[in-house]
Amino acid sequence: MDHDYHDYIVVGAGAAGCVVAARLSERRDCRVLLVEAGADIVPEPASIRSPYPVSHAVSAYRWPGLAARIKAPRPGQPAPPPAPYLQPRIMGGGGSLMGMFAFRGLPADYDEWEGAGAAGWGWDGVLPAFRRIERDLDFGGPLHGQAGPVPVRRHRREQWSPFSQAVGRAFEEDGYSFVADANGDFADGHLAVPASNLPDRRVSSAAMLDEAARARPNLTILADSEVQRLLVSERRIVGVALMRRGEPAELRARRVVLCAGAIGTPQLLLRSGIGPASDLAGAGITPVHNLEGVGRNLANHPAIYLSALVPRGARQRRGALFHNGLRYSSRLPGCPAHDMFMPVINRTAWHALGDRVTALGACVYKPFSRGRIGLSRVGGRLVADIDLALFADGRDLDRMIEGTRRIFRYLTRASELVTGLVVFAPTNARLTARLAEPKAINAIVARVAGAALDGPAFLRRRALRNAGIDPAPLFDDEAGLADFVYRYAAPMYHPAGSCRLGADGDPAAVVDPRCRVIGLDGLSIADASIMPALVRGNTNLPTMMIGEKAAAMLREDDAQSGARS
Ligand SMILES: Cc1cc2nc3c(=O)[nH]c(=O)nc-3n(C[C@H](O)[C@H](O)[C@H](O)COP(=O)(O)OP(=O)(O)OC[C@H]3O[C@@H](n4cnc5c(N)ncnc54)[C@H](O)[C@@H]3O)c2cc1C
């Protein structure tokens, strides 16, 4: 047996890649190599393991130096400069950094995918894959999995903090009914928000690569190894060229499965000469295969938050990130139902300031704006050129503005229910991000600042001035509110769609409904990049579902073609 030859090379050990590698290697005669650019730390460090998300603030777990143009310019105004954009580089990918919101999206989202040419990806086609990866601790029946690797659970209402309870009451007074099972009842309403964790730990897709899976002789995990390009022979992909701790290597396989994420996968294709001919020519890359959809159709959820300082008696020290939220329909012209989500953030950080400050957000879950990813040459080097283009479609900004009005309304009502709640608009994201890094010095700074917030009124006012502004005047100033929302809205970490699924023959599709790259042999994609459109939910579980479904199809295709596995 050739020990350097694999049946599959899976590139990227993220939400989808861990699932793909785990499932493919269940067949002992199938040799799988999982390549990850980031570290593989076993056992998971405390910051990743924590059920309260902390690891997103650890710079060692991110792609260094990644920047993106975040927002499309407003009419008549210059484009804002690129800003840092967080993407995971660690075993588990986004699953190791995420907030652990465990939504699936709505059945209509998947029916829309199928309508866009992704045959077999309608709700009935994806539900079995969701069920196989989930272990729902609260609900059973035909809509929920009971035996999968990822626990899904909700907090009981009596466990919620006074802030979560008060905002929930404001939602219900506004006419929204309580929805206990947001992954099975898809109406608008006040949701008990599902989480993918256990009381003492996060559970990401990396859990599928447990000790037993790692002991499989047919599975190799190569961490700290960045794939630089695909090896191509005629129209077949035959392997990858990678750099491991400064050393180049070439590894070969019968099939390569790209799971490098919606930002990483299109870059790898472009570096390998696969993509829109004009983009390749512009970056001086020798073309291998003209595929117009690569890097296009990039979608993301935009979000905005207002915060509230919670008085001493109403805090939940060391509480969960979230308990509840609101799914609602903006009803703006041309916008689909259930297009918005409001997360109630119970505790904004792991430290003493986070215990004192809560937040309420508005997210556009069905955005119309689309961006793109390309490569440009800087000093002879190819670098990512990412344009998220949030608000390129004015309907997305309009919904954010309306959502901000709602946030203020609900927080105002909550402050009647929780005496002493002080609402403010956070404007110092850089300071918040710096303090979020889990370091002893940040714990001390947060404790001192927290004491100031609990101190005399003049100290509290000064501390709050450093953190944000009083939002009330914005709501009497249409233009001022629009400026505020445009400036302070931010992308969630849900990039998707940059190598989308579609029918063979659709010029915008990159993969066919069996996840095979159109026009090439030996290459598949299974990650968030293949979503034809974003789902109305956070993207971790949907991406794990993609990995699960893709792996099943690869195994079926192998069985049919008589390949070894
Ligand atoms: C901070 C943060 C918070 C989030 N919160 C939530 C949440 O609460 N709920 C939710 O549902 N979703 C959440 N998400 C989104 C979710 O994590 C992503 O949608 C999901 O991880 C996407 O999965 P993926 O497999 O497509 O890519 P990823 O999980 O990003 O995995 C891609 C992997 O490929 C590796 N890679 C990339 N390029 C290469 C290369 N050239 N060579 C080798 N390896 C490479 C990367 O290092 C990475 O580990 C969050 C994401 C982030 C970053």
Automatic annotation (TrEMBL):
FAD binds at V227. Its cofactor is FAD. The keyword Flavoprotein applies. GO terms for molecular function: flavin adenine dinucleotide binding; oxidoreductase activity, acting on CH-OH group of donors. It holds the Pfam family GMC_oxred_C. This is 5-(Hydroxymethyl)furfural/furfural oxidase. Belongs to the GMC oxidoreductase family. Coiled coil: none annotated. Residues 261-275 form the Glucose-methanol-choline oxidoreductase N-terminal domain.
